[in-house]
Amino acid sequence: MSEEESRGVTSRRTESRTATARLLGVGARGAERLASATGVDQALEDAVEEAIVRALRSPAVERAIERLLLRNAVQDALEKALTSDEVAEAVVNALDAELADRVWEELLASNKAQMLVERIAEAPEVRAAIAQQGAGLVTDIGRRLTKITEALDDGAERIAHGIFRRPGHEAETDQVGLVTRVLAAAADLGLLGIVFSIFSGLLSSVAPVLVGQGDAELSPLAAAILSGLAFTIGGAIFVAFWALAGQTPGMRFLSIKLDAGGTSEIGLRRALKRLLAVPLALIPLGLGFFAILLSPTRQGWHDRIAGTEVIYDTRAEVAPWAVLDPREPALSSRASGRVPPADTGKEEGGKAGT
After folding, report:
1. What is the value of pTM for the model shown?
2. Buried b (16+ CB within 10 A) or exposed e, 28-39
């Protein structure tokens, strides 16, 4: 093909392209008007929106969001925002504002707040926690007091052994000494005295009404009968505590208990025998109780007669808030039960030799 023919072909192609472009431009504007008239553009928009929604719901997008969260980008941004000085200052200003004070006053004065406080106070869990902490405080005080009385027990025994020129005990035992037992008995008698005083006050207020006289007084016989009844009731209370629990409230306060053959349940018969032996130990100027100071097993006459011992109760719990020195045992070696009791030569069944 010659050069002139080639130039003619190129010219014709250019004209054809120009004409086609003009035709397409007109066709595009016409197509746009046709789509607007027939609603095709709305259909296309709906299709595009649906495609976007499907893309957002796709597993790929979910995985991308999970990767973003795993990178803690959002969490880091929130932490930075919450720990910023501007946010802290804004919170402090909001709390110090007068409006916040008014809101708190109205909230606390509302009936709903009062009902909430009452429900919390009446909750069984709250009452149980308060009772447990109160009991723990009493137990903690008793244990610390027992540590003091234990030292007094040792001092009293050294004095007694020095007076009678008898050798002291070679080994520590878990039996309780005289001072601790006297203090526990004093606590029990004090509780009984309070109960009897309340009962006598009620009786004195009721007696004039029963006899019909305003200045009625008890006769000596009635006073003797009431005294005997009081001693009987008191003795029955002691027997009940000894037989059922192995310790009285005063003994529990000082973390001590009765023991007979390795058990605290000494039984009714042994408890009665111990109660009846108490006057025998008390009548001869209390010599039956002072025998505790010289006995290797710290037993008095009533203990030997009944075959019982008084030992430290290692089951007592320390109050939750009590801070104890790890180098210092709870009630010393014998009170914590780490030192075995001395061999007393007792026979099986807990009967001590007399």
Report:
1. 0.55
2. eeeeeeeeeeee
**Contact 342/330 with Cβ under 8 angstroms?**
no
Neighbours of 238 (CB within 10 A): 19
- Residue 96 has which token pair? 């110090």
CB atoms within 10 A of CB 241: 19
Q: Please, are residues 113 and 107 in contact by the beta-carbon 8 Å criterion? A: yes
- The answer to whether 321 touches 158, Cβ cutoff 8 Å, is no
Residue 162 tokens, joined: 């020095």
pLDDT tens sequence across 154-205: 999 999 998 988 876 656 678 999 999 999 999 999 999 999 888 888 877 7
184 to 160, 200, 280: CA distances (angstroms): 21, 24, 20
What contacts 24+ positions apart, CB below 8 Å, involve 54-63? none
Q: What is the dihedral of CA 220, 222, 228, 232, to 10 degrees?
A: -170
Closest to 299 measured CA to CA, from 182, 185, 180, 175: 175
Domain ranges of the chain: 22-78, 84-122, 124-335
Instruction: Compute CA distances 100 → 104, 113, 116, 262, whole Å.
Output: 6, 17, 21, 65
pLDDT at residue 341, rounded to an integer: 41
- Alpha-carbon gap, residue 182 to 310, rounded angstroms: 12
Longest Cα pair distance anywhere in the chain, in angstroms?
Answer: 162
- With CA atoms as reference, report the closest residue to 307 among 336, 345, 346: 346
